[in-house]
Write a structure and sequence with these properties.
The chain is α+β, with helices and mostly antiparallel strands. It has five helices and seven strands; from the N terminus they run ααβββββββααα.
């Protein structure tokens, strides 16, 4: 399997929009690039981490999901929001996007999308929540009891060797979209980058969904009592 690096993904993006300049690095990272002059490096260095985090947060990629037990930030005592939420939990420091509480067996990947068809919407569950700012910190407000505060979320996986080839290709096309205008490429190449970005998004997402089999949700007590599954 081909292993990409930050530099190869940037070079793929440059190639996508018809720019022949190639970046180099001592270890494949932008931080240790040996070609740090020129607009090509400047734009790639600026946009790469931003586009990477945006694409990572767009869907529950298997290589960038993490389980954790949340710690309580505030039990709501004397807080104005206690009529709505019982607790506020600390938002994980490496979290790009909170996904779900995992108490509900079988609750998993959802095929719902936002109005633009880009961001995958998180699945539902029995524990409602809201991500909010509280006391200058990001928290997850919920009625979830502390002994059930196990969660799954998308984290900022910056280890490129973990990325499947389909994701690396998707990332390169999304990066190409961002750097095209600053590098003054033709409108035709910008359009192609956008079109290929959509195509690779569908391909990478399809590959991810084909590599998992979610359990069915458990039946409720009333169904179980009647002998249902």
């Amino acid at each position: 399997m081909v292993t990409h690096t930050e530099i190869t993904i940037c070079n793929m993006a440059l190639e996508h929009i018809g720019i022949g300049v190639k970046l180099a690095s001592t270890d494949g990272t932008l931080a240790n690039a040996t070609t740090t002059t020129g607009e090509e490096y400047t734009e790639c260095n600026f946009w790469y981490p931003k586009v990477r985090d945006l694409v990572l947060a767009a869907a529950p990629w298997g290589f960038s999901m993490k389980y954790a037990t949340l710690s309580e930030a505030d039990d709501g005592t004397s807080e104005v929001w206690t009529d709505h939420w019982d607790r506020a939990y600390t938002y994980p420091s490496d979290c790009l996007r909170f996904w779900r509480f995992i108490d509900d067996e079988g609750v998993g990947l959802s095929a719902r999308y936002d109005s633009e068809g880009w961001l995958m919407l998180a699945p539902g569950g029995s524990y409602p929540y809201e991500v909010r700012n509280h006391d200058s910190s990001v928290v997850i407000m919920s009625n979830t009891p502390t002994d059930c505060a196990q969660v799954e979320y998308i984290y900022a996986n910056t280890t490129v060797s973990n990325y499947p080839q389909s994701f690396s290709s998707l990332l390169s096309w999304r990066l190409a979209e961002r750097i095209a205008a600053p590098l003054s490429v033709s409108a035709e190449r910008v359009t192609r980058a956008q079109t290929e970005g959509i195509r690779m998004w569908q391909h990478a997402l399809g590959q991810m969904m084909n590599e998992q089999q979610r359990r069915r949700p458990r039946a409720g007590p009333s169904i179980s009592a009647r002998g249902g599954d």
